[in-house]
Design brief:
Largest sheet: 7 strands, mixed
EC number: 2.1.1.22
Low-confidence stretches: 353-372
Distance between the termini: 33 Å
Pfam families: CARME
Protein name: carnosine N-methyltransferase
Number of helices: 17
Keywords: Methyltransferase, S-adenosyl-L-methionine, Transferase
CATH architecture of one domain: 3-Layer(aba) Sandwich
Radius of gyration: 23 Å
GO molecular function, one term: carnosine N-methyltransferase activity
Oligomer: single chain
Length: about 425
């Protein structure tokens, strides 16, 4: 992304509560290696050696070789941790480094660490007495796994189901408008992607020639997307094993230990060499805004700024979906389209029920808590797809397309697993009434 990594006038490091949260997120990535080893192998080794001795001795030998498998699991945790460490470094540079006194940093960092970024930044975190939360640790783990969906070649199976219909819909809207206005350029079509996650949908729409602004509230996702979009040096820079920490429902160990290269392409090089299908260079057409979607895009300065809004696996993060509809209506130009694809796994309901299960497309934390509107508002409601469509229609949109059960997709799904969770998301296009 050109010039700066995130747009917006809010400085999280100037707000004490927000600063504490940013530091917890940074520490969650820094702690990935240690905690994954503890929970992934240390605890399992203890449980294994608690078996009757004749049993664990048997299972230590071929064809079972459980202890060898645990050693392999340790190796793959280290591979995942290389990515987590890189996110920590990128996030530290973006958020914390600009606030630090260089002389103080030099005074606390041992000379032997001077050329090791991770150890320098980790020393600073230790002196600030930062401790992450359980929730942030779980989100860091989920974020590492999400790279499989958005930035591996194998994740294209899910991206084709969820992202391609959006890119195609924007392209069809452009073609329709160009018939009326032949001078229209692809860069003239401005698209907003709320809940941008790791940035792949933003990247794909930019690569198609359009101007795109991603929006994300999660610092985990912001730091991770910044790494892949702005700081990776080549395709396949990292190797991850996204299914290694889940030891259930595997047909064989190779399925559990399968490694995937990420990113599947180098975003910078790809955009630099993108076909000239737009008057503006790709780097001039891509930006990311950090903050609460409802707050940012309900403001007067966001009014009628976008030709299209694309929400993928997003609207069910709303405690009150009317807030989202109002924000979309405010920031869309008259006649603009809202493209939505996703299920209705109401995330706030999952948290309230304390089910303990990891929810796909995790809910975004209520950041920017100094503001009194947005997803942190009190109250909540869970609607059916039929009710969502009726509400969108009632609040100023005309539904032009609506299909269900035509798309079938997983979410960070292991295709070799004995357990397959499949979504049949609703896909619809609504046009803002003039």
């Amino acid at each position: 992304m050109a010039h700066s990594e995130w747009d917006g006038d809010f400085d999280p490091m100037a707000d004490p509560d927000e600063q504490k949260h940013v530091l917890s997120v940074l520490d969650s990535f820094r702690s990935y290696r240690r905690l994954a080893h503890f929970n992934g192998t240390h605890v399992r080794r203890q449980a294994f050696y608690s078996l009757p001795s004749e049993h664990w001795i048997l299972l230590s030998k071929p064809p079972f070789s459980i202890l060898d498998s645990l050693s392999r699991l340790d190796d793959l945790i280290d591979s995942n941790a290389e990515l987590a460490d890189a996110i920590f470094i990128a996030g530290f540079k973006a958020f914390l480094a600009p606030t630090l006194d260089s002389e103080w940093v030099a005074s606390i960092v041992p000379e032997k660490y001077a050329h090791d970024e991770f150890k320098v930044y980790s020393t600073v975190m230790d002196h600030l007495d930062v401790q992450t939360t359980q929730t942030d640790m779980e989100k860091a783990r989920s974020c590492v796994h999400q790279f499989y969906r958005e930035w591996s070649a194998e994740g294209a199976v899910e991206r084709e189901k969820c992202f391609d219909p959006v890119v195609q819909s924007v392209s069809e809207e452009f073609a329709s408008r160009k018939k009326v206005s032949p001078e229209l350029d692809r860069s003239d079509v401005k698209v907003l992607v709320p809940g941008a996650g790791l940035g792949r949908l933003v990247f794909d729409i930019v690569r198609a020639g359009f101007s795109v602004e991603g929006n994300e509230i999660s610092y985990h996702e912001l730091m991770a997307s910044s790494l892949v979009l702005n700081h990776t040096k080549k395709a396949g820079e990292f190797n991850i094993a996204p299914f290694v920490l889940n030891c259930s429902n595997h047909l064989n160990r190779n399925d559990q230990f399968r490694i995937y290269e990420i990113p599947d392409l180098h975003p910078g090089a790809e955009l630099e060499s993108a076909p000239e299908n737009s008057r503006l260079h790709a780097f001039e057409r891509m930006s990311m805004a950090a903050g609460d979607f409802c707050v940012l895009y309900s403001r007067e300065d966001s009014r009628e700024q976008f030709d299209a809004v694309a929400t993928v696996f997003f609207i069910d993060t709303a405690p009150n979906v009317i807030r989202y509809i109002d924000a979309v209506r405010n920031c869309l130009k008259p006649g603009g389209i809202w493209i939505n694809l996703g299920p209705l796994l109401w995330h706030h309901a999952s948290r309230r029920q304390c089910s303990g299960e990891e929810t796909e497309g995790e809910a975004k934390e209520p950041s920017h808590r100094h503001l009194d509107k947005g997803i942190a508002d009190p109250g909540s409601v869970e609607l059916t797809d039929e009710e969502v469509i009726a509400l969108v229609s009632h609040l100023g949109f005309a539904i032009e397309q609506h299909t269900t059960e035509t798309i079938s997709t997983g979410y960070i799904s292991n295709p070799a697993s004995m357990l397959q969770n499949v979504y049949k998301p609703s896909f619809w296009i609504a046009r803002k009434k003039v």
